[in-house]
Amino acid sequence: MIKALYDHLKAKNLNPYFIGQHKGECTERYCVIKENSQVPYFNTNKLGYRLVDIIVFVPANSYIQIEPYIKPLIELY
């Protein structure tokens, strides 16, 4: 699932990285995909759903770029 999400973000030119993959200073906007825990459904034997965090980074001198960058991320789901 996480690889499919990465491929989808890459296809949309959203510059994704996995946790610990990006090195150096933030010179362009990018997002980091962090797989979180699995949450079971209450009172069932079903697996539930998995949470994924998408952390957005933009250069400090251009913080107003964050809203237009987040819009395509929100529209994914």
Characterise the protein shown here:
The structure is a single chain. The chain is an alpha+beta fold and 77 residues long. It has one domain (2-76). Helix content is 27%, strand content 29%. The protein has helices at 2-11, 66-76, and strands at residues 16-18, 30-39, 49-57. The longest helix is centred in the last third of the chain and has 11 residues, at 66-76. The mean pLDDT is 85.
SSE pattern: HEEEH
Spans where pLDDT lies below 50 across 5 or more residues: none
Structural class label:
alpha+beta
Count of the domains: 1
Count the beta strands: 3
Name the average pLDDT.
85
Fold topology:
Layout: H1 2-11, E1 16-18, E2 30-39, E3 49-57, H2 66-76
Parallel strand pairs: 1-2
Antiparallel strand pairs: 2-3
Descriptive tags:
elongated, 77 residues, 2 helices, alpha+beta, 3-stranded mixed beta sheet
